Amino acid sequence: EPFNAHEFVERLAWRTMGNKARNNVEDFDPWALHSAFEKMIKDLEDKNKQMEKKVEKLEQACKDEEKRHWQRVAELQKKNQASYSHFQGLDERINLVATKVVHLGDQLEGVNNPRARAVEAQRLMNYLSEFMSEEPLKSAVFTDPFQLQLAADIIQKLYQIALELPAGERFDNARKKIWDKYNYVESELIEEFRMAHHEGDKRKMKRVASVLSNFKGYGQCIEAFIEESQKGVYMKPDPFDDVLPLCERTSALINNVFSNPDAVMVKFVQNVYNGKLQSHVTSKLDSLEDPEDYLVELHKLYTKTVKLSEDLSQFKMGNDSFFLSKLTKHIFSKHLDAYIGFETKYLKERCSAHLQRYYEDNDHIKVKIQTGGLTDLRRDIQAKLGTMTKTNINIGPAIENYGGQTFLSQEVTISLLQEAKNAFKRCHMLSSSSDMASNAVQVFDVLVQYLVVEHIDYAVELGLQAIPLPDTKSQPQVYFFDVVGQANTLFHLFEKQFMDSLVPLVISSPKHSLCLHKKRELRENLEAKIDTGLDRSITAINSWVQKILAQEQKKTDFKPDDDNAILSMTSPACAKVTKFINSIHQSIRGSLDGKNVDIVLTELGCRLHRVIFEHLQQFQYNSLGAMLVICDVNEYRKCMKEFKISVVTELFEKLHALCNLLVVVPENLKQVCSGEQVAGLDRSVLLAFIQLRSDYKTSKIATMLK
């Protein structure tokens, strides 16, 4: 532990004074403590001198050892320099000897090579003379079957010589005999290679293959190897399961036997693809008549082949990185060329079947929708005639609402999207990179036609036709809000698949912008029809409210003669209107979502405010009538407050404040008109409302307001 001088002094004092001095002040002896300190100081000085002497001895020993070490290093450096000088001399002598040996070898080779060529030429001339004679061959090399490989070497060289012999009767016979022997030896070597392969003799196969590499029939040797390698190996029902193990075994054998293993492996794999695999694919697909089974099996087989190609890419097969993909395209070329036509035809059939089954289950026969033109003109004319004449004039066929059926099905939509999703997957796998985008667009067009046009758009058009006319005789049943909610949900599902399935296939091509433009057009077209339908629905609702108020509200409702009228609080017309609006509000909340709810309720609330405001301006109000109308407006205000739309709530608050002007005593009207409750309202509106008071003239209110 580190030395602490303070603690050391404390312990020394403790030992010197003892317990008595600590307990009794009188027993404390300072001289004893002083003597102990002096003695301890002297002891420490002596100890310090001893330690200094010891340190000096150790330093001297280190210096002596360092000196001896550097002496040893110097001696070793001298020895190393001498060894290096000896090594240089020895290296120079070795280089001199090596130069002489190489020169001697070159001289020997220069003498031996011409001699060896002369011996070889003489040997070939002797064999050529045998072929030029009329007698049969006598040399053992041509007659002994065990010297076949030696005979192959000789006959191959004689074959090259025969090609250069001049044409003429003198050499024709010899040339023919050489060619016949050449073909015979070649066929025998191939047969010997077959036998060695059958016996599993790799060394013999390698020797024979090496000899045959100089013959024209080397390709036949490779073909024989490929044929023998595939005999009896396809034992499983699905040949795809046997190909990879076969290639692994064959690749190892090829590397041991052939001098050009990459080229041989290429031919072997090509034979497997164009042979066994292609016949399997053709037989499987040609036996299928059902379109769904055909497409599913085509996708399955193609996926298997692509997976197999990925597994086989581990083997060395030349420098063509697209070799396996080209083989895959080749064996499926017949089916891939016609794929997209078959895919779109099948997808149309499936989508049409789903829609037809749905409409049949709902006992609905699709009708031809007449959009725009005369249909919209008829609705507009009928609405204006009803408004102008206050009578029900019907200038067209009756409105059919199909009992509230929207003819929109989430189950059908999911089925259509699933069919399209499967089609997009097959398109991604079975289309070439150049055709993928255009093929995906064709699948997308089918989905648009059957899901968006023939299902969603058709249902929205039916919903538009089913919206009640403004001059309806009975309470309108507005089902279009349900149509809007369901149509939005289904279109969102369509957009999700657009992003998930289509965009990855077309994003790197010009088709991407075209698809985005088409989807935007579809959405804008749908939104335009929905806007039209919502406007018609709100118009029908307002017209019915107007009709209730016109029929139920009497001129005398707000000019009662007795006080008993106040007991009824709200008028029957107000009760019917609020009940109707509450049902419409619940329908909107239950059908729409998000900002659509706020937008529709805002428009509906503003139009209802205008209807009620104009309705109230048709009456004269006495004091009791003013109380009654305030009760009615208060009910309207409560009803509108449930919309939770600040603009609508503010409008009805202002309307309630206007009605309060009907009960204010004439003397206070001027003060109330400048108050906060009616702040922001135009003075002409205030005056117009005040003029509805029955005492407006008698009390000379106009004069008071000046």
Automatic annotation (TrEMBL):
Record-linked InterPro entries: Sec10-like (IPR009976), Sec10_HB (IPR048627), Sec10_N (IPR048625)
Residues covered by the Exocyst complex component Sec10 N-terminal domain: 32-138
Keywords: Coiled coil, Exocytosis, Transport
A Gene Ontology BP annotation from the UniProt entry: exocytosis
A Pfam short name: Sec10_HB
GO cellular component terms, A-Z: exocyst
Coiled coil: 34-68
Positions of the Exocyst complex component Sec10-like alpha-helical bundle domain: 151-704
Family to which the UniProt record says this protein belongs: Belongs to the SEC10 family.
Name of the featured protein: Exocyst complex component 5
